[in-house]
Amino acid sequence: MPTKDFIRQRFFPHLWCAGCGHGVIMASLIRAIEALNLPKNNVVIVSGIGCSSRMPGYLDFHTLHTLHGRALAFATGIKMGRPELTVIVPMGDGDASAIGGNHLIHAARRNIDVTALVLNNSIYGMTGGQNSPTTPLDARSTTTPRGNIDPAFDLVELAKGAGASFVARSTAFHTKELEQMLEKAISHRGFSFVEAMSGCPTYFGRRNKLGSGVDLMRMFRERTVPIGSEKKKTDPSLIERGIFVDRARPSYTDQYRYITQSACEEH
Amino acid sequence: MGTKSFVFTGSGGQGVITAAIVLGEAAALHEGLNAVQTQVYGPEARGGATRADLIISTDPIRYPKVINPHVLVCLTQESYNKFAPIIRPGGLLIADASFVSTVRKADARQVVLPMYETVKEKIGKTIVFNICMLGCVLSLTGIVSREAVVKAVTSRMAEAHLDMNLRALNLGMELAQAAGTGVISAPRQTVSS
Amino acid sequence: MSGTLRFIQGNEAVVEGALYAGLGFYAGYPITPSTEIAELLAERLPKRGGTYIQMEDEIASLCSIIGASLTGRKVMTATSGPGFSLMQEAIGYAVMAEVPCVVVNVQRSGPSTGLPTAVAQGDVMQARWGTHGDHAIIALTASNLQDVFSMTIEAFNMAETYRTPVILLLDEVVGHMREKVVIPGEGIPVVERLVTSVPEGIDYHPYLAREDGRLPMSDFGGVHRYNVTGLVHDMWGFPSNDPTVAYNLLRHLVDKIEKRSHEIVRCQEHQLDDADILLISYGSSARSALHMVEKGRDSGIRIGLLELNTLWPFPYEIVRRAAEKTELVLVVEMNMGQIYQEVKKAVRTDRVYLVNRFDGVFISHTDIEKVLNVVMGRGV
After folding, report:
1. Chain segment C12-34, per-residue pLDDT in tens
2. Cβ pair A55, A90 in contact under 8 A
3. Interface of A with C in 26-55 (CB under 8 A)
4. Does an H or E element contain B27, and which?
5. What is the ipTM of this complex?
């Protein structure tokens, strides 16, 4: 199917700024869903609030645009309410790791069978460029005019630490890689976490004098390396891409099915 | 019969709440009476003195708490000291001989029975102390029939422990009947805990 | 009524009512004095193929039941004051997105952690206005456990009928006390989810109300793919900034409840026919009020009780009519006058007095009698 068959064309053009990475990440997600041959009626997209969370409006699946930070909690209800559905949760970095940080670590701990896709642009875009938990040290934002003193989260390490059974990272530049990663993440039985680095030229790029959307894309190409790359040994500041965790662990959904079965047999 | 109110007190783990529930269930489900049971929760219920209230009535019960009970049971000295003053004048105060020495002069009939000692000696498992107490209450008040309590105990207790609980119930009833002679109700001189 | 006679706690009566109504999904977080509801459902829901999940907090609890409701399940959470505060944002979401759900609040003393194990009725206004923005809400309550059981079923029925969160506002005394309840095998009406009859391939409008005001739903995972959002949205569920869309949506959200308050209001009259003195009360306080009525009648005082089972929408008209026939109105509640203020709005007389407690002690008939003596000029 062509991409247009997965979107609600009446809402285009989308509201994302020129040079924003979110659109290409959404395209990777669409191609991953297409590659998996998932019936559209079996897919639910759940988002929170923010730039990335406008995604459900554009996608022609069952879509739920929720509260800031709470997408994974809503998604948990949907998955447990109807386990046969494929639940994908696009979130922003602030959405997922600040206001929604508690839900993120508990979804990972439970290993609930949903896919969390964090579009990390290191800034709060929708509200106009405030610092987020992934804004790098010293970076400028509207609320860190003298430089950011809050150490940033490494979202991959956060997800690993919380017990996610699938953890991966790619960028808006590496669209094919991201698509394949999302394919694996969605197929994974259990909680899958994918960080997609995205550029916000409007706020992050401009305030930190990093140039246009194209310059940010170039940065993703030059400043990231595949896991285990030789370059990383000589330049530890490079960011690794790839699948960090992919292990089988009983998913919450499956575990609960056993609980229900054994409870029903008690009669 | 009208309305009769009960307050069972003791320390956490003695089972006074279970005893109140069992008696309430006996009255409500097996005697066609009305019953309302409440208990004190929270920090007060952790250690210290535990309290369970029960009202049994032929009429509908509106106000669910007990202010001045007709029957007060005290299974520890602490609960005796704390709650003895609330007993209704002319009421019945039942205390355990091992744990309570009745020092107060209350305007109530005080009956001190060696419930704990008897259970320990005759059954060997003090977990049924509360049901022995219930036997005493039953015998001294006649509030419900023994059969009703047996049904309630049967529905609440694990089958493996049923026999033990029913023996404790009988022991309690016998103890209370003996107390009618005035032999056992003499206050103990020493307090063991 | 035929059925099983049980001697159970109020919290267990909630569980029985919820299961009777067809509860399929419960999410919660432990908090006194509501925890027994979670414990009992953890045991019983899986046995009937339902889902119980303990979430990381009350925010997540309410969010997850909204998600589950969209998949077609009947859903509930239970909490108390602090947890209810955390749920407010998501209650607003359920109002805005019109997602049926039942929120039980077994009230305890506040504000903040307050007296965690002590009774209070201080969340009446929070139930009404706790979430931000203009909206209508349904809040139900009960004073005895038979009513707790039936009002729980009503809560589910109203949630489904009006596509709205319904708050079941109980309190510690009602939640924890045990008394007789008859659990009927059948006979109480249960409202099932109204599902759209629009077939696949034909446009389904999730937010286009029928003429009777009801909005048929389509489950997530079904044949209609649509959008649900907390933003102002059009009849397809898509965000809109159009003032007309905003006006119509808010009007609809309020009117679907306020204009149907005659269907939603549940009250009980106790000896009101010839009463000179009207007590108005609800929840466990109404037990003491009723005790006062019976005691007063025994000594020849013409006193009666109007017991409210629906707090929101407030039954202004019923209160006004009841008060017109009496000389004196006493509102009995365990807060600083939250329903008292509504009663004052409803009635024309100045002779409305508040009998209350907010010290964690359960209000008694003696408390009522003392105030009654004062306002009748008999002194304390």
Report:
1. 999 999 999 999 999 999 999 99
2. yes
3. 40-42, 44, 46
4. helix B16-30
5. 0.97
